[in-house]
Amino acid sequence: MNINYIPVLRLLLLLWISQLFLACSKNEQLPEQPIIGLGGDDWSRSAIDDYLFENFVLPYNIEVKYKWDPYEVNYNKTLVPPMESKVIPVMETVKAIWMAPYEKVAGDDFLRKYQILKYVLVGSPEYQENGTIVLGTAEGGNKITLFVINYFAKKNRQEVIRMMHTIHHEFAHILHQHIAIPQEWRGLSSQWYTATWFNTNNAQANAQGLITAYAKSSEKEDFVETISTLLVEGQEAYDQVIEDNPEQELTFRRKEELVVQYYKDFGIDFRQLQAEVKAGINKITQD
Amino acid sequence: MKRLIYSIVLFICCSLTACQTKNDFKGLRPDVKLQEQLDAYSEQLSAAENGWIAYLFPKSGGGYTFKMKFNTENRVNMYADLNANTASTAMESSYRLKATQVPSLFFDTYTYMHLLSDPNPQVAGGIAGKGRYADFEFSILKVSQDSIQLKGNLNGSELLLVRATAQQGDEFIQQVYHYNQQHLSKFDQFNYYYNKVSFGGHSFQFTLNRQLHTVSFRGIGAQDSIRFISEFAVTANGIQLKTPFQIGPSSYQTLTNFNLNTPLGAGTFLIGTENAELKNQAAPLSRYPMDATHMYIAKYQYYSPTGFFYKGVEDVLHLQDIKGYAGLQFIPRRYIDGTDVFYLLYNNGQNYFGPGFKTQIDAQGVMRFTNLLGYDANNASTVTDELYNKVQQMTQQILRPEGFYVYRTATTGYDLVSVADSQLWIRFN
To answer: Do you know which InterPro entries this protein is assigned to (chain B) (predicted)?
Structure first.
């Protein structure tokens, strides 16, 4: 007997597969209990939470995390959460010296377009193995971690400038992730970039045509350090550095020019922004 | 043909098994269970009407006592026995229970507990970048009605929460702090270094290290194989050991009711429930010759905030009068030729000045500092006459030819006791 059983097999397979669909018409139900921690943690809201919600979440969709979350920071570092009493003063300062100037000069929507989505506040600095400490980091163009919150005081002008330098520094990183650093920047100070930037102090860096020691660490750090120094320490401080290092005047002025030009691409008058930041610093430290 | 038959059999088999399991999952889902567990912990923490007494043992040593009161709104009120201020003024901060790999208790904004974790060594000592290796996020390991055992998630320090009684009110930590100041401080005020403690037919050489919060027992006579060191935390009437002290079948976790008479050099206290008698004496009771060698190689540098004790007086050379005094340092092998140094730190620790010498350790475990090579400073222009004279006095004591016995009193803490005069000693950590 020699029958062709291939079609029969095919038929059986088809039948079997269709059975799979028919046989088990179960009602799949999703569990009602949500997964724990999905969508963040819950806690009873305090006055700080209300302030942050009204001033940052509602208008800008910016999350400010001040309660400890080990997964937001370097897990292998020893860090501590901020003191509650420092949270509102820090965020008021951020608002007055970073957000208000940009909004005034570039329009209300600028910060919604080029956005920092999340601030993470940490009480202490982050210590590096090479003996330096980290004061702030930016990640993925939308998250800024601010360290040393516990040492913050509005009256302490130096401390306000140091912290706002960090924020303007990190925000400049976010800007150059949207529009690249000008091509002309390349080559201005390239010979000085080094991973061991911390072996140089600011004065030595200035003499090499870099505005701070950290500017020596790479091209993009050089770029954003120049921006944040021009904005936060201010034009006077920048001019003073040039005066002290006349042989680097060309480099410094060229960098300044490029920064002003760069901000034009965003439609921002850099000079006006400088003035607004300065006014903001004066307002906060004199309150 | 055979294949066809096999296929049909297989088909029937498949059809039979396809719809065997129609049962839905009947148990509780993990998220429900987890939430229930967190709620239960939260309920237990906040339900304690007198709050909780917490004993924290950071990974780097020591033990600290806290009083905490949790409410249902993620707020916790805390006292700590770290200093007079933290003992008397409460600080409010926030806490939450979080489902990490093990359900965890987070102290998630800054409070007294974080002082020990602060990576800035100026806050509460420790190492730059690490602090005291303490924790403020803890996995909940073991729960009973009146106690909760936790372990730090980052450094693995230990935290024990014990439900407070009605007597342990808001001033409890102040009592703890005063107990430390009034009673335990007497251990630094005895005439001689050596304390003999006897109880239940056993005798030990005993030290209580208030800097590192440790006790050490060294057996004398029949117990000479026993050597026990443990961290402790202070309670309102004594101390609570981190590790129980085991002798044979007996186990002791508390030392209480200290009644010490420093002029007489005698005292009593309770170990567990047994009466212990303390006798302060001039002659060494036990010796571990290896301690000297261990001290020399175990750590790169040793630090003493207090300086020399003599006849129960702290800092007998008045080194602390020096402007910006920040302690003494012993650095074995400071220089590559084997020169060791004793530095006095001044100008808030920015500057140092002190003698360089060679160290000899003999078979009896006596450490001798010899061959004074001169003095070493990192900024010679800031060395005043006063400083120079003090350091010379200090050097005379250090270089006494009889040398020092070395006793380990903590994991990396050592005491140096003058061989010539057991009234003179210095504590390093």
So the answer is: DUF4302
pLDDT digits (tens, 9 = 90+) for A187-235: 899 999 999 998 999 999 999 999 999 999 999 999 999 999 999 999 9
What are residue B69's DSSP bridge partners? B77
ipTM score of complex = 0.79
Query: Which of the residues A9, A14, A80 would you substitute to probe the B interface, choosing the one with the greatest number of B C-beta atoms within 10 Å?
Result: A80
Long-range contacts of B388-391 (CB under 8 A, 24+ apart): B388/B353, B390/B317, B390/B318, B390/B319, B390/B322, B390/B344, B391/B344, B391/B353, B391/B354, B391/B355
CA-based nearest distance A12→chain B, Å: 7
As a whole number of angstroms, the distance between CA B140 and CA A244 comes to: 59
| Interface probe, candidates A50, A78, A147, chain B, greatest B C-beta count within 10 A | A78
Half-sphere exposure of B184 (CA within 13 A, CB side): 27
Confidence tier at A118 by pLDDT (50, 70, 90): very high
Of B31, B75, B129, the CB nearest to A31: B31
* Chain pair A-B, CB pairs under 8 angstroms: 118
Q: Which chain B residues have a beta carbon less than 8 Å from that of A3? A: 1
Residue A237 tokens read as: 């401080």
Q: Which of A33, A80, A81 sits opposite B31 (nearest CB)?
A: A33
Q: What is the pLDDT of residue A40?
A: 74
Rounded to the nearest 10°, the torsion over CA A167, A172, A177, A178 is 120
CATH of domain A47-286: 3.40.390.70
Cβ-defined contact of B137 to A83 (cutoff 8 Å)? no
Instruction: Spell out where chain A has E strands.
Output: 63-65, 118-121, 126-127, 133-134, 136-139, 143-146
B331: left (phi over 0), alpha (psi -120 to 50) or beta: beta
pTM of model > 0.90 = no
Q: Which residues does chain B have within 8 Å of residue A152's beta carbon, measured at their own beta carbons? A: none
The CA distances from residue B4 to A6, A15, B377, in Å, are 9, 15, 98
User: Quick one: tokens of B328?
Assistant: 């003494």
Domains recognised in chain B with CATH numbers:
30-167 (2.40.128), 183-281 (2.40.128), 290-428 (2.40.128.270)
Q: What is the mean pLDDT of residues B57-83?
A: 93
